[in-house]
């Protein structure tokens, strides 16, 4: 019975300053670092041992994974980084303060951009200096698939191929897997794993630094779900 642990990265510097982050590579805050370490301590206390780790190509998730594995004495396990586990791309909203954005466009519109399943944010041009097309970590991607903005639906569509090609085969092989990623890429995975409706996924929140443990049977059906809370 394979286990999968999901961890949303610890608080980032832009979480702290209430800015839209998305694909911008922001570091953990001091609190976020401690949240990641605490996640590792809870994992160790629960006796969870992993065979494979996955994370995004963004610093805040990578560091969260490393802190959690270090605290649980598992920093040595195989690790794969992929852009497909990146946070949802917030388009032209990236870098903007959420409260200021609400003043500019209205609370309701910003809420729709943030929480709607299939509404796109204002898109970021590929020519914009903040475009991921100019970032070396995405140099091996077809420029046509580098987003200018995403909703949760689009995020799900780019996460699921990685699930099908890597994560699901690991679990079916009886391996225990840990994923440190982001609020929306993990919400997308959770939607798929639990078959949550488009309407209900809007209300799902992922707590920073809180490990969520799934147990699967040999048909990849969830038999148990536990949050490792304080």
UniProtKB/TrEMBL annotation:
Its EC number is 5.4.2.11. It comes from the Bacteria. GO terms for biological process: gluconeogenesis; glycolytic process. SMART domains: PGAM. The keyword Isomerase applies. GO terms for molecular function: phosphoglycerate mutase activity. Pfam families: His_Phos_1 (PF00300). Keywords: Gluconeogenesis, Glycolysis, Isomerase. Substrate binds at residues 8-15, 21-22, 60, 87-90, 98, 114-115, 183-184. PROSITE patterns: PG_MUTASE. Pathway: Carbohydrate degradation; glycolysis; pyruvate from D-glyceraldehyde 3-phosphate: step 3/5. The active site is at 9 (tele-phosphohistidine intermediate), 87 (proton donor/acceptor). The record marks 182 as: Transition state stabilizer. It catalyses: (2R)-2-phosphoglycerate = (2R)-3-phosphoglycerate. InterPro entries: His_Pase_superF_clade-1 (IPR013078), His_PPase_superfam (IPR029033), PG/BPGM_mutase_AS (IPR001345), Phosphogly_mut1 (IPR005952). Belongs to the phosphoglycerate mutase family. BPG-dependent PGAM subfamily. Catalyzes the interconversion of 2-phosphoglycerate and 3-phosphoglycerate. This is 2,3-bisphosphoglycerate-dependent phosphoglycerate mutase. It comes from Lacticaseibacillus camelliae DSM 22697 = JCM 13995.
